[in-house]
Amino acid sequence: VQLQASGGGLVQSGGSLTLSCVFSGNIFEVNIMAWYHQAPGKQRELVATISSGGIITYIDSVKGRFTISKGDSKNTVFLKMDSLKPEDTAAYYCNFLPAKASWGQGTQVTVSS
Q1: Which tens digits make up the pLDDT trace of 10-31?
Q2: Do residues 77 and 67 lie in contact, with contact meaning Cβ atoms separated by under 8 Å?
């Protein structure tokens, strides 16, 4: 499976961005797709997940601000990020949960104060 994340950029605090991820290759029906982020000097962290059955989870720091969703094609996942904060600055990656695919390049999100 190959992963291609896009949609990052530079935004002011309080702004919004929508990230997209395309999973290409052999994707089984039963899976959990996820977004992760990694801030400079920190470990990669799980941000949000969406299961094939539509169950969604978020880490506490993004609840109420981020929305994960799937596209009409089963191999596309989005992360809509509203009310962005400087502490959301990180490289964002998509993968499964657990992260069984090779990590793609990710997409950089930078939030200025």
Answers
A1: 999 999 999 999 988 877 666 8
A2: no
